Amino acid sequence: xxxxxxxxxxxxxxxxxxxxxxxxxxxxxxxxxxxxxxxxxxxxxxxxxxxxxxxxxxxxxxxxxxxxxxxxxxxxxxxxxxxxxxxxxxxxxxxxxxxxxxxxxxxxxxxxxxxxxxxxxxxxxxxxxxxxxxxxxxxxxxxxxxxxxxxxxxxxxxxxxxxxxxxxxxxxxxxxxxxxxxxxxxxxxxxxxxxxxxxxxxxxxxxxxxxxxxxxxxxxxxxxxxxxxxxxxxxxxxxxxxxxxxxxxxxxxxxxxxxxxxxxxxxxxxxxxxxxxxxxxxxxxxxxxxxxxxxxxxxxxxxxxxxxxxxxxxxxxxxxxxxxxxxxxxxxxxxxxx
Length: 338
Known about the structure:
- The chain is mainly alpha-helical and 338 residues long.
- The chain folds into 3 domains: 1-88, Zinc/RING finger domain, C3HC4 (zinc finger) (Herpes Virus-1); 90-123, no CATH class; 164-228 and 247-338.
- Helices cover 43% and strands 4% of the residues.
- The chain has 9 helices and 6 strands.
- Helix 5 runs antiparallel to helix 9 (292-337).
- The chain is extended, with a radius of gyration of 29 Å.
- The N and C termini lie far apart (60 Å).
């Protein structure tokens, strides 16, 4: 991946002419403008320099600068096969709101959900019916349909969604010759067999690796290599309850999720003065890779959720396309029978 046209070549310079710290692609000091920290190289970048509107500031979930996304710095520069990318939180559905959605919602709050629906309802137009009557009609539809599935099917003609009985050359020709329908079906197959399967495999691999890492940490702790308080010589610290002590463990970061060896072998090879063993970071409470497992897990889960939502949209498009073809088929039958 190449750098954007507006982005200057990478410079490792960290100080300016006066010895002050400099940041961003512009290599200037912190002038108080809104900035965002890169999760790959730990540098800071101005929203303005990155061409990102400041209204997006609450929507950043995991940010990677142009250099990390191009593999110049960050995880990819250290041998990782996958280039990182910035992940954004889903924006509130209300056009004028730039807050992230609440969990399992399309809105940032109930108030904005109500405002969106009121705005949408105000746009409803049914020829020959006054606006007040339109609003009442929609309210009655919701009130009289207690089940969601029943509400979804109101007004549908069930025969439109059914395959015509028996073999029909006309129908077979329309379906077999429809390029759009086959394109959508092929997209669904590729999404299921390749993209979603790959993401699920990576997620499963990460889960297995974290279970293996948990075993490694438990074995190291049982040998007394990790569960030692930083303030062991401090009498006051020794009085703390076990509940309040922070459990130590090795970082465990790796560029992939492959288990390199049995847990016993890694424990045998572990040395407190060696930063990596078998390509795995074995530092205790590593600041460089802080919360890497949680971030990777959340990123993969969000990717899987987005892919499954996309699959559902494709299936809806297939259903809509079939409905269109069915309508065309029955219209042609009517013309032929006249």
